[in-house]
UniProtKB/TrEMBL annotation:
The keyword Mitochondrion does not apply. NCBIfam families: PRK07308.1. PROSITE patterns: FLAVODOXIN_LIKE. Belongs to the flavodoxin family. Its cofactor is FMN. Gene3D superfamilies: 3.40.50.360. The keyword Phosphoprotein does not apply. This is Flavodoxin. Low-potential electron donor to a number of redox enzymes. The lineage of its organism: Bacteria, Bacillati, Bacillota, Bacilli, Lactobacillales. One of its GO terms (molecular function) is oxidoreductase activity, acting on NAD(P)H. Residues 3-143 form the Flavodoxin-like domain. Keywords: Electron transport, Flavoprotein, FMN, Transport. SUPFAM superfamilies: Flavoproteins (SSF52218).
Length: 148
């Protein structure tokens, strides 16, 4: 089984999340490739069983150019039957826009036929111990969905 993680990170928080998730999935016996969104092409998800986006949200939910480019590519795909998951770090001071781009990607994956393997994990700013436990749990759900 192969997982593809695409992460968007400016100050490192989402990159840290992606790294923790990558290690978790590897420990669960999954072959994982992780790539920065600025170098990624959404079509790489066509080769994966589990498609994952780990993303920041900046600018009150308005996507940055690198996010929007990838998002538009994603919407061109048909990922019917594949599993997906989304997660990200944001900041609750942005209220209704908290982790908004995480949910944008959740909707996009659903729209193109993918099946959610685990509920979105959203954390505030830097990764802390409690957050690691949430990521670990989500990784187990993702692995379980591939076996199910
Ligand atoms: C100018 C600016 C705008 C932001 N806008 C949002 C936002 O709309 N929603 C949100 O949840 N977080 C927002 N954040 C917080 C970041 O998403 C948060 O710090 C995140 O951990 C950054 O991830 P990164 O370290 O991977 O870049 C904003 C931060 C800055 C500096």
């Amino acid at each position: 089984m192969k997982a593809q993680i695409v992460f968007a990170s400016m100050t490192g928080n989402n990159e840290d999340m992606a790294e923790i998730l990558e290690e978790d999935l590897q420990d669960l016996g999954i072959d994982v490739e992780s790539i920065d969104i600025s170098f990624a092409d959404a079509s790489s998800f066509e080769e994966a069983d589990l498609c994952i986006v780990v993303t920041y949200t900046y600018g009150e939910g308005v996507m940055t150019d690198e996010l929007k480019d990838f998002y538009d590519q994603l919407l061109e795909l048909d990922l019917t039957g594949k599993k997906f998951a989304v997660m990200g770090s944001g900041d609750k001071t942005y209220k209704d826009h908290y982790c908004e781009n995480v949910y944008d990607f959740e909707k996009a994956f659903t729209k193109i036929g993918a099946i959610e393997a685990a509920k979105p994990v959203t954390i505030e700013n830097a990764v802390e111990d409690d957050d690691i436990a949430l990521i670990d749990q989500a990784a187990k759900e993702m692995a379980g969905s591939l076996n199910g």
